[in-house]
Design a protein that fits this description.
The complex is a heterodimer of chains A (297) and B (319). Chain A has 297 residues and is an alpha/beta fold. Chain A has helices at 42-49, 71-75, 93-103, 108-117, 133-145, 163-180, 191-197, 215-220, 234-240, 261-271, 285-295, and strands at 2-13, 16-27, 31-35, 57-62, 65-66, 78-81, 151-155, 183-187, 200-205, 208-214, 225-231, 246-249, 252-257, 276-281. Chain A folds into 2 domains: 2-219, P-loop containing nucleotide triphosphate hydrolases (Rossmann fold); 222-295, YebC, transcriptional regulation domain (Alpha-Beta Plaits), CATH 3.30.70. Chain A contains 11 helices and 14 strands. In chain A, helix 4 packs across helix 5 and helix 7 (191-197) packs across helix 11 (285-295). Chain B has 319 residues and is mostly helical. Chain B has helices spanning 2-16, 19-42, 49-69, 75-99, 108-114, 118-140, 142-146, 153-187, 207-236, 239-260, 271-274, 290-316; strands at residues 193-198, 201-206, 280-281, 284-285. The relative contact order of chain B is 0.12. The chains are: A alpha/beta (297), B mainly alpha (319).
C-alpha cells in the first residue's frame, strides 16, 4: 500500500527550480532513504510532504489525502523530525513531550511509552537546555512518535547519536516498519548506516530524483567488490582459491569479486577445510554506488 | 474547540514555566504595592482631610492669582496651559469642602482608581511576554513541529491571540486585586465617590463605575495592541521589529504628531487615533461623537487590513 505518493512535484523559489518533477511512491512497512548532497532538496521535499513548504506544481498524497487540499487529514498520519530537534530549552523533557502530546491529543501514558522507547525515561525531569545533542535528538524522535504515526519522517536522525544510539535507533526503526507497518523516511549523510537501515532509497541531486532502488538492487549493480575472508593462514586459502586474483593482508585474503561469487568462494574454502572467521566487504557498497550516481552528469 | 483549548493550555505552560515571565508577574504585584504605599503617603487621613484641603485651596488660589496677575507676554502661553489645572483643583477642593466629601483620602477603591495608569505598564509587560512567546517558536524551531500537529495555521494563530487576550484579563485582575488589598490594608474600604471636573462643573462620580469604564477601555486597548504585536510577529518572525512596531504604533503620535501633525494626510494614519484619550474623558467612556467615530473607523480599517495580511501571509508562507 502506498503511504506517500509524489506526482510530478515541483517547487520553485523565485525563478529557481528547487524540486524538479519528482514522482515517487513510498510504501507502508518500508524504511526509505533519501540520499543526496547538501542542498539537493531532501529537506525541502520532506517539508513539502508535511505541508510546511508549498508545492508549485504536482501533488503529494498521504494515504490518498492530498497535502494541499486535505492538509489536516494528510498531516495527522505523520510524525516528523525536521532538521534540528525543535524543543523548548527552558522546559523539562516531560514538559516538552506534554506540550506536543496535548496538541496531538495523545494520552499521558504515551509520554512514558515513547520516552522508554528512546531510552530517555531517566531524564524526563531534566531541563532540555542541559541535554547533549544525542539526547535532544532522541527527545525529538520521541515527540515524532507521540501520535502513533503511520508515517515517520526523520531528517538526519542519527546526528549526534553515539554508536549505541545509532544501533538502537536502527533496530527500533526497522521494528516500527516491519511490525507496525509504518513507512519510515530517513535522510542521512551516513551512507554505511543507510545501507544497513534502509530497504529502498532514492538519490536526489539538484532537486531531481536520480535513482530509486532497493538496497539489494544497488548491491547487485555494483559489479566487483573487495571482499575479505578472515582465515587462519591466508597462504593455504590462496592454494584453495587458485585461479582467482587475490591479495593477502594480515590474516585476510582479499578478492575482487561480484556478490554471486561469494558463496562459491565460501564453498571452496569450506571444502578445503579452511575455517572462515568472517566475510566482510572492504567497500561500502551504497557509498560506492552513491558517488557513482552523484558524480555522473 | 478542543484544539483551541489544547493550544491555550500549552501556551500557558510555556508562559508560566519561563522564569522571566514569572519575574514580570511579580514585578506587577510589586508595582501595585509601591503605588499603594505612595498613594497612602500622599493622602490625607479621615481626621485631617478638611484642614489639608483648606490649606491646599489657599495655596492653589494664591498661586493662581499670582499667575493671572503676571503681565509678561511670555507667560501668556504658560497661563493658557496651567489655568485649567488650577481651575479644576480649586473647583474640586471647594466642592469637597462644601459637600463634606473626603478630599485626597485614600482607601481600597481610591487606590485602584489612582493606580489605573499602571495598566499601561502592565500592557507593555504583556506585549513583551506575547512577542517573546511567539518569536521563540521560530527561534527554537518549534514552529515546524507545531504546524504539523494537524491544527490549521489559522486556528493556531488565532489561539495564540486568544491566549494573550486571556492573559491580559489575568494580569488586569491581578492588578485590581493587588491594588485593592494594598489599599484595604493601609487605609480600609472608605468612600466609593470621587470628584471629576467636566465642562466647568464638578461632578460626583462613582469610583466603581469609573473603574469599570477604565478597565474595559484599557482591556480593549491592550487586546488590540496584543493582536497587532502577534500579527507583526507572524510577519517579521523576530522580536525587535515586533516590539519597535507595536510600541511605535502606540506612542508614535507623541513624536510624529509634532512633526507631521500639520499635514492633512496625517489624520488618516493610525497614530493620532490609537490613544485612549480619543475615547475617554474624566475616567469615563466618551459618548459617540464625530471625532470618536472617525478615530474608531480609521483604527478599524488598519486593524482589519493588518489581520487579513497577517493571516494570509502566515497561511501561505514556507516554514
Amino acid at each position: 500500500m502506498n503511504a506517500i505518493q509524489y506526482k510530478n512535484v515541483k517547487k520553485n523559489i523565485k525563478s529557481k527550480e528547487i524540486i524538479k518533477d519528482v514522482s515517487l511512491e513510498i510504501k507502508t512497512g518500508e524504511v526509505f532513504g533519501l540520499l543526496g548532497p547538501n542542498g539537493a532538496g531532501k529537506t525541502t521535499l520532506m517539508k513539502m510532504t508535511l505541508g510546511l513548504s508549498s508545492i508549485s506544481d504536482g501533488e503529494i498524497t498521504i494515504f490518498g489525502h492530498s497535502i494541499q487540499k486535505d492538509t489536516k487529514k494528510a498531516v495527522s498520519q505523520i510524525g516528523s523530525l525536521i532538521e534540528t530537534p525543535a524543543l523548548y530549552p527552558y522546559l523539562t523533557a516531560y514538559d516538552n513531550l506534554k506540550i506536543f502530546a496535548n496538541l496531538v491529543h495523545a494520552p499521558k501514558s504515551r509520554i512514558k511509552e515513547v520516552s522508554n522507547l528512546v531510552s530517555l525515561d531517566y531524564a524526563l525531569n531534566q531541563k532540555v537546555k542541559g541535554f547533549s545533542l544525542g539526547m535532544k535528538q532522541r527527545l525529538g524522535i520521541a515527540i515524532a512518535l507521540l501520535r502513533n504515526p503511520k508515517i515517520l519522517i526523520l531528517d538526519e536522525p542519527t546526528n549526534g547519536l553515539d554508536p549505541q544510539g545509532v544501533l538502537d535507533l536502527r533496530t527500533y526503526l526497522k521494528k516500527l516498519a516491519k511490525e507496525l507497518d509504518i513507512a519510515v523516511i530517513v535522510s542521512s549523510h551516513m551512507l554505511p548506516e543507510m545501507d544497513l537501515l534502509c530497504d529502498r532509497f532514492a538519490i536526489i541531486k539538484s532537486g531531481c530524483i536520480r535513482r530509486v532502488m532497493t538496497i539489494d538492487e544497488s548491491h547487485e549493480l555494483q559489479g566487483n567488490n573487495e571482499i575479505q575472508f578472515e582465515v587462519d593462514d591466508p597462504n593455504i586459502a590462496a592454494i584453495a582459491l587458485s585461479g582467482y586474483k587475490y591479495v593477502i593482508e594480515n590474516k585476510r585474503i582479499v578478492l575482487s569479486i561480484t556478490r554471486e561469487i561469494i558463496p562459491i568462494i565460501t564453498e571452496k574454502l569450506v571444502a578445503a577445510k579452511i575455517p572462515i572467521y568472517s566475510i566482510t566487504s572492504k567497500d561500502n557498497q551504497l557509498e560506492h554506488f552513491y558517488f557513482q550516481v552523484v558524480n555522473e552528469e | 474547540m478542543k484544539d483551541f483549548i489544547s493550544i491555550i493550555q500549552t501556551e500557558y505552560l510555556k508562559i508560566w514555566k519561563k522564569k522571566s515571565n514569572v519575574i514580570l508577574t511579580i514585578l506587577v504585584v510589586l508595582l501595585c504595592i509601591g503605588f499603594g504605599i505612595i498613594n497612602h503617603q500622599n493622602a490625607s487621613s479621615q481626621k485631617t482631610w478638611r484642614a489639608n484641603a483648606q490649606k491646599d485651596l489657599e495655596t492653589y488660589t494664591k498661586e493662581y492669582e499670582e499667575l493671572l496677575s503676571d503681565k509678561d507676554q511670555n507667560s501668556k502661553a504658560i497661563v493658557d496651559i496651567v489655568s485649567p489645572i488650577y481651575e479644576k483643583a480649586i473647583a474640586t477642593t471647594c466642592y469637597a469642602l462644601e459637600h463634606n466629601i473626603p478630599y485626597n483620602v485614600n482607601n481600597a477603591l481610591q487606590n485602584i482608581y489612582k493606580s489605573t495608569s499602571l495598566l499601561n505598564v502592565v500592557t507593555i509587560i504583556l506585549i513583551l511576554i506575547a512577542i517573546t512567546n511567539f518569536t521563540n517558536e521560530y527561534q527554537f524551531g518549534t514552529i515546524k513541529q507545531l504546524l504539523t500537529t494537524s491544527i490549521s495555521r489559522r486556528k493556531w494563530l488565532l489561539s495564540k491571540c486568544m491566549t494573550y487576550v486571556t492573559l491580559t484579563a489575568i494580569f488586569f485582575l491581578l492588578q485590581l486585586i493587588s491594588c485593592f488589598f494594598v489599599g484595604f490594608i493601609l487605609d480600609g474600604i472608605g468612600s466609593s465617590i470621587t470628584l471629576e471636573y467636566k465642562n466647568g462643573t464638578v461632578i460626583e462620580v462613582s469610583i466603581i463605575t469609573s473603574l469599570i469604564h477604565q478597565y474595559i477601555m484599557h482591556f480593549i486597548f491592550a487586546t488590540v495592541l496584543l493582536f497587532v504585536a502577534t500579527y507583526i510577529c507572524a510577519l517579521t518572525k523576530t522580536t525587535l521589529p515586533a516590539i519597535v512596531a507595536t510600541l511605535g504604533i502606540w506612542f508614535g503620535n507623541t513624536v510624529l504628531g509634532n512633526f507631521l501633525g500639520d499635514y492633512k494626510w496625517y489624520k488618516y494614519t493610525p497614530f493620532p487615533h490609537i490613544g485612549l484619550s480619543n475615547y475617554m474623558e474624566n475616567g469615563m467612556i466618551k459618548s459617540f461623537d464625530k471625532p470618536m467615530t472617525q478615530s474608531l473607523t480609521i483604527v478599524m480599517i488598519y486593524f482589519i487590513s493588518l489581520t487579513l495580511i497577517s493571516f494570509y501571509t502566515f497561511q501561505k508562507r514556507d516554514v
